[in-house]
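Sync notes, pocket subgroup
Present: LS, DG
LS reminded everyone that the earlier model was apo-only. Rerun requested with nicotinamide-adenine-dinucleotide included. Inputs:
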Amino acid sequence: MEKLSTVGHLINGKKIEDTQRTQAVYNPSNGIVSKQVALASKQTVEEAISAAQAAFPAWKNTPPLRRARVMFKFKELLEQHTEEIAQLIGEEHGKILHDAKGELQRGIEVVEYACGAPELLKGDYTKNVGPDIDSWSDFVPLGVVAGITPFNFPTMVPLWMIPMALVCGNTFVLKPSERDPSSTMFIGELMCQAGLPNGVFNIVNGDKEAVDTLLTDSRVQAVSFVGSTPIAEYIYQTAAAYGKRCQALGGAKNHAIVMPDADLDNVVNSLLGAAFGSSGERCMALSVAVTVGKDIGDQLISNLSNAMAKLKCGPYANNSNDFGPLITQAHKDKVVAHITSAEQQGATIIVDGRNISVSGFEEGFYVGATLIDHVKPDMDSYKAEIFGPVLQVIRVETMADALQLINNHEYGNGTCIYTRDGEAARYFCDNVMVGMVGVNVPLPVPVAYHSFGGWKRSLFGDLHVYGQDGIRFYTRRKTITQRWPSSSLREGAQFSMPNL
Ligand code: NAD
C-alpha cells in the first residue's frame, strides 16, 4: 500500500516534520484517509515561537510600505494558484470547487485591505496642543501573536488574521485546523515566497497540546481564535489568565425573520444558499427561519420543499453540485442525531436528508438538505448549533415575538429580516442583539474594510476581526507629547497637573 504523505509544520521558512504523533486527514467526499497531519509537540511549538521572536525586531522596524509590498506579491500568488488552493480545500473540507474559490476570494479581500498599511498605520497628529507642544499617537506592534483557526474556512479565516497582524509589524504563529490543514499550509508557503523574512510567519499543525503551548507561553502577546463556543470560552479565559490580549469568535445560530410582506421567491432562493451552502458548515449559515403571521409559514414550507427537491449534494470536484459532504463521520452522526431529536421532541420533518446516498461515493460523509417545521424554542435542536444542512422553521405571531426569540438565544452572530417595510427593517436593526444584521441580505458578512464579529456567546473579547478593529487588535497605541524649548525659555518646576 502506498505510504500516505504527512503535513508537517512551517517554521523559520522551512518545512519541518515532527511526526511523533499524527492524525488522519480524510477526503470527506469519499470517506477515505488521504494524508496524515503531524501534531506538534510543546517543543516544536516553542521552536516556532522562538523563530517568531527572533524575527520580530527587524520586521517591526521594516517600513509599513515594504511590509505592504509583501502583501501585494502574496495577493498575486494567491490569484495565480487559485485552482490548486481550491482543489486542496475541496479535497479535505468537501466544499464544492466554486464555493472553495469564493472562500479564497473573501480572504484575498483582506490581503488587499492590508496592502493599505501605510495609510492604516498613519496614526493621529496634532500640532500645538499647547504652546510649542505637538502630540501624536502611533500604532505599535505587539510582538509575537498567535492564531488558532477552525476547519470550515481553512484559508479565509487564517487570512482574516495573518495579513492584518503582519502589516502591523507583528510576527505570527498559526495553528490551523488539524482536520483540513493542506490548503492552509499551501498559502503559508506562498506567503513566505512573497518575500517574508524567515520566522515572520510560522505554522504549527496540532491539537490541544499545541494550542495550550501558545496560550501559556509568555512570549506570545495576543491570541486570535475562531471556532466553537466552548473552546472559544476556554481560549479567552486561559489567554486572559496569562495576561494576553484575546479575541475568540465562537459558534452561532442565525435566524431569518420572514415578514408577511416579504418577497417569497427571493426568500426561498436566498435561504437555499444560506442554509445549505457549504453543507451548513458556516458560522453565518441561516439555520432558523422565523415566519411572522398566519399564512406565510405554510406557503414558505411548500415553496421551500419544492425548491429543495432540485438541490444537488455530492463530491467537491463536480461543480454542478450545490453542496458537498460534512467534514467527518463523527460530525455527520452528530447532525443526524440533532434531526432525530427534533423529530422525537415533536417537530415535523418535511424534507429528510438523513438517508441520502451519493452514487459512487457511498462512504462519503453526506447528509442531504433537511427541512424541519413546527420547531419550538425548548427543543434541543433549536438550542444547539447543528452546523449541517438543516433548516428549522419556527412560527410566531408578531415581529416582537420573533425579536424576543432571537434576543433570548445564547448566540448573536448573524441574522436577517426579509420584508418590504422599511420601518420594520429599521426597528429590527435597532433592536436585535446580534453583531451582523442583514436586511433582505441572507449572509451579511462584512467586507474587508469593515470588521467581522458577533455578540453574546458568539464572541469573547472586545474587538472584531479584520478592518479597523483588526488594526486596533494587533497594535497598541503610544501617544507622544513633545516640546523642544529654547534655552531662553526655561521654566520652574510645576506641581499641578499641566493644563495646556
Ligand atoms: P473547534 O472549536 O472544534 O476547533 C477550532 C480550533 O480549536 C481548531 O484549531 C482546533 O484544533 C482547536 N481545538 C479544538 N479543541 C480544542 C481544545 N480542547 N483545546 C484547545 N484547542 C482546541 O471548531 P471547528 O469544528 O473546527 O469549527 C467549527 C466551529 O467554528 C463552529 O462552531 C463555527 O460556528 C465556528 N466558527 C465561527 C466563526 C465566527 O466567525 N464566529 C467562523 C468560523 C467558524
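DG: Residues 6-250+458-482 form a domain with the Aldehyde Dehydrogenase; Chain A, domain 1 fold (CATH 3.40.605.10).
LS: The radius of gyration is 25 Å.
Action: DG to write up.
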